[in-house]
Amino acid sequence: MSSSSSVFLRTLRSALASTALACALVGPIAFQTTSASAQFGGRADLDTALNPDFYSRDIQLFVESLGLEDWQRPILEAMLDDYKVSFDAGVAQVRDRMTEMKDKVSGSDPKELMKQILAPLETWSEQKRVLREEFLENVRSQLSDQQKERWPKFERAMRREKVLSRGELQGEMIDLIQVVRKQEFAPTVLQGLEAGLEEYEVRLDEVLVERQRKIESEQPKVKDAMAANNHQAGVSAMESIMASRVIVRDTQDQFRDALKELISKVVGGTEAATFEMDALRAGYPKVYGIDPIVPLFDAARQTEGITDEQKKALDELEAKYHPEIFDVNARVRDAFRTDEPREPRRRMELIAARASGSVTARTARGEAENIAAARKMREEVYDRYRTAIMEILT
Fold first, then answer.
1. pLDDT in tens, 96-107
2. Which of 207, 253, 310, 343 has its CA 20 to 30 A from that of 131?
């Protein structure tokens, strides 16, 4: 048996031998999720079986999306309570079964051990799906015909709420509908945007459904690859999932631009630019985080004894800064768009290089080379403007 397989077996047995019930249940799952990310460079959503599909905070989403009446809300809350009782009972049974398994798991084949460990969870996943469908059917039974007509729109809203955040690419997880809502446009403006938002909502739902289907179909391959310590097979499965993530991200980018153009036509360019920047900050937080230079301009203008000539120089410098940093950030964003989808392959190559004692692997940083280079270029721009501001003040 290889040393990596031995480590794998020891990890699984250690997780099952945990004395705490929570560790007996969560340990293997946490190990799978972490290992998939570490070995194959991505997430396969192996840790969702223990999470309920509905929470109390979802009540408002039901109410708003379906247009529920005041008298219907207490009924919905009671049904959600019943769902939670059933869900908690199911998780407790899984916990008990996995605790019992720590004395029953046997054999040295990692793949077989994985099957034994995951058997209770796989059974529970089907039970969880049935609970979900029963709850939704109970909700439907309480709706009027008019409310039932809104069911597809509710399902799309629920999908955005539940699965949109399970992304891992910059630009993949944003909800542009929420970005538009935060602009607090007048009702007449929202009416002009309605068709564009509806098109976005439907298309985003299509690619989210496909992404989830791809994740679910590739999960068994990821598990088998982990058990067999087959990096190539694991990376191939992760790359298949990654391709579906790229489609979601590209859809988000396309509709960000389309909605910006629509907002410009309906209400004006200033509001469109505001929407674009808010969408970029929300969608690409690693790119459009806090700008360290803009506050320096504001602070410089407040410097005691500053002259009008210096203020004018600061204004002229800032006027140059904004378009330049916008272009620089676009290049950083492009680096993320290009390199992030390659992460599963890059991780595998780094692992192989480390195993061979490669100097490159030992000195490689956490980020991909192009992303690191783009960040460095941006820092150089920041430094240049910091220096320019200080030169004006002195």
1. 887 777 666 665
2. 207
130 conformational bin, left if phi > 0, alpha if psi -120 to 50, beta if neither:
alpha
Asked if pLDDT for residue 194 goes beyond 60, the answer is: yes
Residue 44 tokens, joined:
């396969």
Q: Is 356 helix (H, G, I), strand (E, B) or coil?
A: coil
pLDDT at 303: 92
Long-range contacts at 4-7 (CB < 8 A, ≥ 24 apart): 4/229, 5/110, 5/229
Q: Compute CA distances 112 → 38, 79, 93, 226, 248, whole Å.
A: 22, 39, 22, 12, 35
Q: Tokens 């391959």 belong to which residue?
A: 221
Q: Looking at the predicted structure, is the pLDDT value of residue 117 above 60?
A: yes
Q: How far apart are CA 184 and CA 292, in angstroms?
A: 28
Count CB neighbours of 262 within 10 A: 21
Closest CA to 347 of 46, 43, 38, 45: 38
CA pair distance 244, 249, nearest whole angstrom = 9
The closest of 241, 206, 233 to 43, measured between CA atoms, is 241
The rounded distance, in Å, linking the Cα atoms of 386 and 321 is 11
Nearest one of 288, 293, 291 to 385, comparing CA atoms: 293
Report d(CA 215, CA 119) in Å as an integer: 19
The whole-angstrom separation of Cα 145 and Cα 265 is 36
- Give the C-alpha separation, 13 to 10, whole Å: 5
pTM of the model: 0.80
Q: What is the pLDDT of residues 213-270, one digit of tens each?
A: 999 899 888 878 877 778 888 888 999 999 999 999 999 999 999 999 999 999 999 9
What sign results for the dihedral spanned by CA atoms 231, 234, 240, 244? negative
Q: What angle do CA 35, 37, 43 make, to 5 degrees?
A: 120
For residue 160, count CB atoms less than 10 angstroms from its CB and return exposed for 0-12, middle for 13-18, buried for 19 or more: buried
pLDDT tens digits along 121-167: 878 888 999 999 999 999 999 999 999 999 999 999 999 999 998 89
